[in-house]
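Complex 496.
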Amino acid sequence: MRLVSTRDAANGISPLQAVIKGIASDGGLFVPQMFPKIPLNQIKVMAEKTYAEAAADVLGMFFDLDDDFLRDMTRTAYAGFDTPDVAPVVKLNPVEYVLELFHGPTLAFKDFALQILPRLISEALKGKEEKLLVLTATSGDTGKAALEGFKDVPGTDISVFYPEEGVSYMQKLQMSTQTGKNVHVSAVRGNFDDAQTGIKRLFADKEFNKKVNDAGYFLSSANSINFGRLAPQIVYYLYAYSCLAAWGVISLGDRINITVPTGNFGNILAAYYAKQMGLPIKRLICASNKNNVLTDFFDSGRYMANREFFKTASPSMDIVISSNMERLLFEAHNRDSTEVVDLMANLSNMGSYEIDSSVYSKLQEEFYGDFCDDSATYKIIKSVYERFGYVMDTHTAVAQGVYEKYAQRSGDDTVNLIVATASPYKFAQEVLYSITGKTDDAPFGAAEELARITGISVPNQINILKNARVLHKSIVSKEDMASEVLRFIASKKLTE
Ligand SMILES: *Cc1c(COP(=O)(O)O)cnc(C)c1O
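Predicted structure with pyridoxal-5'-phosphate bound:
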């Protein structure tokens, strides 16, 4: 298997190389040269395997790695999850199911990929002299999951920037208390797009790159544009389908709908990739919060990034530029990279682009986009709790709200899978408020109150934060990110 750039479909590189590079030299994203096909009977038997075994099978279709290595990697990667099911599927009613992706060490779906990515990178780095410097901007969950994944991985150092005002109390505490000898964490003044733009600028900054190279490093990103993030996310869609088939909820071959709370378009794209590999999916429902650039895109075929940015109760979806959309555009244009280059040039020059009507109508058959603002999200959390006794976090509730609107409008009663991307305890104050109308200024108090009411105990991943020491206090402006990173690697040199 080779990967090609969305902006140059001619030149391929190996998936492991792509994982190290992160982004193609031409600015494009790496995509599989072709999708491996997974036959239905192979999907069927996944439910009989452990999640780690299923993951090794799927990753082996992309990565040319030794089977023993793959099995060992996925086993250790998913051993730290707090349930043996790893990705449990939970029934709400006969057509509505929830895929819980928040049982990893950082309580968000990002763990599925970020427990794998550092292990792939470590393998790719074997025998190399240079060290890898991972630079990442985070809207909350990526940063912590990347820190946990990369902490103390030999040959790597990691630097994470999060928007000062753009993450929840628990998310901030998870990052500022991060341990590990090779980690650096800093807040950036501004919102997520400021932090992400700052990181992109560093990757493009020749002088900065030279300094980093001179210090013995090469740069990579753990952001969701990395192919090593995408591939592990394909697994759980196949696995969940296999479980639904094994339970008799669907017959093998029946199509399902999948509703994904979406930000950078990575998670929903992985579902689309699963579909390209043969998973029977009818509609992919793209759920946004008030930052509804994707809703407008699926409504009109126009991507319009020049718009107001809102801070919401689902901060990991507070995004205006969904980077992984470039990969969907590539497929939608029948892998014509010249089209992608044009659209991306329009996006960077004018802040918008419009796709051809024939391409748009194809996308409309496969996708549906809608959004929920915060007050609708709070109502959904309450009503889901009252109807099903199930507690959703703010991101998952956005998906549920959008799904319910879709089902009502379309009359589509296809079995639906809601993708639950974070534990409600990561956003305990908002969830408690939604269910009880009570506000609690103390985040841990809110978590305990929520546990008392719902009977679902506070995860240990939250409890340990209570007494953890804050180790990272730096706050910088966007302009100072380069010097902050250079200070970090200089300090590493001194301690080695
Ligand atoms: C990252 C994240 C999302 C958005 O996922 P994308 O792959 O960026 O679309 C949604 N919910 C939670 C909790 C997240 O951490």
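The CA atoms of residues 152 and 180 lie 6 Å apart.
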